[in-house]
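Dear colleague,

Following up on yesterday's call, I've attached the two folding results inline so they're easy to grep. Please treat them as preliminary; we haven't cross-checked anything against experimental data yet. The first protein's sequence and structure tokens come first.
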Amino acid sequence: MEAVVIRQHGNVEALRFEIDWPKPVAGEKEVVVKVRACALNYHDLFTLRGMPGIKTPMPLIMGIDFAGEIDSVGPGVNDWQVGDRVVVDPEDRETFKLMGEMLDGGLAQYCRVPASLLVALPEEVTFAEAAALPVAYSTAYRMMMTRGKIAAGEKVLVLGASGGVGTCCVQLAKLAGAHVIVAASSQEKLDRLAGIGADQGINYARESFERQVIALYGKPKVRGPGGGIDVVVNFTGGDTWVPSLKVLRKGGRMLTCGATAGFDPKTDIRYIWTFELDIQGSNSWHRPDLLNVLELVRTRRLKPVIDTVLPLRRAGEAFQALEQRKVFGKIVLDPWMQE
């Protein structure tokens, strides 16, 4: 079968497109999935480069998020049949192993999957849409709805809004009835974000988002009527952390599920106690979060934003686009697509 394999950590050049990789065989309580779509995440880049404290088995087929059809079932599998459409919930919460990181993932034509990780895929949801959901959309749902409780009428600023998590956050905030503010580095991205529900766009390449938010919504005050916004969604970290604190109203909250621009920013905790701010962390997703976003997509209340779909042999190009932040929404690889 065709597969994208790494034998050591490195940059995009470490990816190897193989045309005769052995097809997996389903073991006890496992199935083999014919992969029809695999969506990339920044976590795939982290796995490619290597992460401190995580010893990835080599060689490895990456690809955390994927969907397809069951090709074969192993002994002890009674609830699934060949041909069933499925999306994979990629974290095995019994062994704490993640598909595409500690187990072979979806950057191949076939993948062996524990049956406990399978979720039935409704006909109304395409394979590409389904592949976008587990990591990015389920994480966004947990952060925004399960934990963050975004409410109607709130002013919500989404940083990193043009990526997979960000485009979902924009749509979820809009579904909740919030006033959605987005920050992006170009007018083209802001226009596209307006198309999925953003009410206000801020181009941070021209001027800091902190100044623009205060100009639009006023400066937060400790006493008396004040400006500021209700919620900042910040999973970038880095030098956006303190400016995010500075635009929150008294009693406002910051939602975070990651730190793509740096996990150890300099901070100023005076804003946290002075303005009685709440910092809410959200760690990945649970199965109900995935089921909730899947139902929202099935009923078309939520639409995964797919930037492009490429054949598997162009995985290097897809990783480069992700690394260079040229992707709006999700980039998907189809192992069966011809050039």
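Below is the second protein, in the same order (sequence, then structure):
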Amino acid sequence: MIRVRWLYIFATLIAADTTSAQRPARSALTAADLPAQLAPATRQAIARLGDSLRSAHLPDEPLYAKAAEGVLKGAEDVRILAAVRVLARELGGARGALGIDADDAELVAGASALHVGATPAMLTQLRDTHRAAGNIEARTSLATPLVALADLLTRRVPAPAAAAAIDSLVARGAPADDFAALRTAVERDIDAGRAPEASVVQRTQVLLKGIDARSRRTP
């Protein structure tokens, strides 16, 4: 859960920065920002991973943020380096599943979803649905649906049910608020003892009906 929340914040910040040309450039994390508590060899290994990601046109900032997170939690260097390597692989996997057009926020959110049980095929399906719904032309981000998918998976919603729910909302052009509402409602249901799959199916249907109702009211 902590990992997904961290990645949600990180992906949201990137999305906000990449969707507004009026905002000043983000102050990027670099290898120079790695915590001094890390051993030199660990810092060098993470810096090399960052170089590899940049060469592949992948975001390297998440690696440095992940390393800093590990230091804050008091993790040993070996565990921090292992976690950073996993994240680097997941970012590459997200690129493979989402394609070359995916932006940094989408890649970070996609990596998070892969980490908690989504398959590359699920991410590709969401990308294709997103495109078919006309979102590419509108330049809307797939990051929000991907974060919602990751969040549902951390709540033990079965992956096929979680992916189907998010895909159906993407297909209807659901706004970001609907994905947030789904996450909140499912969390509340599960805390109350309801089965995760039953919750996500019912809550998604409610949201889809709301989308349909709004569409009927629109001239």
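For the second protein, one point worth flagging: Confidence is low (pLDDT under 50) at residues 12-27.

Best wishes,
A.L.
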